[in-house]
Structure formats: structure tokens, C-alpha cells
Amino acid sequence: MNLIFVLGGLLIAALMLASIVHRYQVHMAQKRMKIQRLLRGVDLVEDLLDRLSGCPFPAETRQLLQKDMLSRYQAIRGVDRRYEGIDRLIGEIGQTLASADVASQSHNIHDKPHLQKVVDAFGEMIGFLQEGGLLNRTPSDVIRQHVEKLGMQRAECGVHPPLSLHQG
User: Fold this and answer.
1) Contact predicate 51/122, CB 8 Å
2) Per-residue pLDDT averaged across 57-82, rounded?
3) Could you give the CA distance from residue 157 to residue 168 in angstroms, rounded to a whole number?
4) What is the C-alpha separation between 99 and 37, in angstroms, rounded?
5) What domain of life does the UniProt record list for this protein's source (predicted)?
């Protein structure tokens, strides 16, 4: 009779342990999904900034996007304080923001395909802002101002490409 109680107790303990392990696995999967979603946003912004490096880019918009990247990194640290390299990434973007380093404003567009890529990147950046791609809520009038500046820069790149494109 005691053996039945012992086996029953072990079975209940095993079921409770399995339940705890399952909840922990679900929790870890949710953390990984949150981190991956935040990192996709950082990757998107970095990719667009890289693609727009050949054309003048509004410094205020660059700073807005860098602040968004900083917010995403801080959110990752909030989800997982032990995420590898997160403190270094936060430090790097913080230094970039503090230095207010503005990338070259010269036209480094060499051919028509590169010009098309830059114009497309401006369009994607405008769509990103208009569709609420920023992590933090930003007033719609501020977004509108950035979108207008980006639209003007896109038009300027398309209307006034470097002389080398006119010769081709």
C-alpha cells in the first residue's frame, strides 16, 4: 500500500516538474522571439543607413534612427541582461549619438543602378517611418517633418545626380 502512495507521489512530482520545465521553455522561446524582433528592427535601420551613405541625409533623421537603435538595444537588455555583447552595442551607439558625427554629405553615387538603389532606400526609409517602424512612439507631426525632409533629399539625389552620371 505504501508503495502505491510513493509511486503516486513520484508521478505527481514528475508531472509538476514537467510542467515547470515546459513553462520555462515557453518563457525562453518568448524571450528569443522578442529579441529577434528587436534585432530585425536594428538590422533594417542599419541597412537603410548604409544604403543611403552616398547621398546627403538629414542629420536630425539620422539621430532619430540612432536613438531608435539605442532604444531597441536597451529593450534587449531589459529582456535579457546577459545577452552577449549588448552593453558594448549600447556603448557604441551611445558614443555615436554623443559625438553627433555626421557622415559625409557628398554625392558618392557612381552609376544609375546605384542611384536607383539610393532612391529606393529613401522610399523604404519613408515607408518605415510612416508605418510606425520606430520602437518609441513619436508624434505624427515629427514623423511628417522627417518624411518631408527625406522626400526632399530623395528628390535632390534623383534630380541632381553627380556629373559622372550625366556623361554616361
Assistant:
1) no
2) 92
3) 17
4) 28
5) Bacteria
In a domain, 26, yes or no: yes
Rounded CA separation 105/99 (Å): 17
Task: Tell me the one-letter amino acid at 30.
Answer: Q
pLDDT value for 54: 65
Residue 74 lies in a domain: no
Q: Which residue type does 70 have? A: L
Structural domains of the chain, count: 1
- What pTM did the predictor assign? 0.78
Predicted local distance difference test score (pLDDT) of residue 107 = 57
Give the rounded percent of residues in the chain with a pLDDT score beyond 90: 55
Distance between CA atoms of 66 and 51, rounded to whole angstroms? Answer: 15
Do 97 and 67 contact (CB within 8 A), yes or no?
A: yes
- Whether 28 is in a domain gets the answer yes
How far is residue 150's CA from residue 154's CA, in Å, rounded to a whole number?
6
Q: Estimate the crossing angle of helix 112-130 against helix 140-159, to 10 degrees.
A: 170
CA distance 72 to 131: 17
